[in-house]
Design brief:
126 residues; mainly alpha; 3 helices; elongated
Length: 126
């Protein structure tokens, strides 16, 4: 059986070669995109790891300070209202016969919420 046209095997080979080359270029492009994505993720993970290490160092510093004598003394002299041997405690006393100054606390003025925020709070809560 003879075909009505002649097959040029060289052209068929070139077309198959171009098709294979196109598939290789597409695969190479996909691999490059994957490499770019993985490189970006690696950079993000490195940044996160650096931040975690900095947080760990800061927390270790706070723990070391909290266990020190300086922290105990800072608390005792500040919030603890304690005195040290040799300190002279001072108690403020008003002038005899003077009237104490009364400071009035202003009452806060309630602010009206916009309608959209009222609806938002109604459906989604605060």
């Amino acid at each position: 059986m003879r075909l009505p046209f002649k097959i040029n095997w060289r052209r068929v080979g070139v077309l198959i070669g171009i098709g294979v080359l196109a598939l290789l270029v597409i695969d190479f492009n996909n691999r490059l995109e994957g490499l770019d994505r993985l490189t970006e993720q690696d950079g993000n993970k490195r940044v996160q790891a650096t931040q975690v290490m900095q947080t760990q160092i800061a927390l270790q510093t706070q723990v070391a300070y909290a266990g020190s004598d300086a922290a105990a003394e800072d608390y005792a002299r500040g919030d603890g209202h304690s005195i040290q041997d040799g300190d002279i405690p001072v108690v403020p006393v008003g002038n005899p016969g003077s009237t104490p100054v009364v400071s009035s606390t202003p009452t806060p003025v309630p602010t009206q919420l916009p309608n959209w925020q009222k609806w938002w709070n109604l459906f989604f809560g605060e």
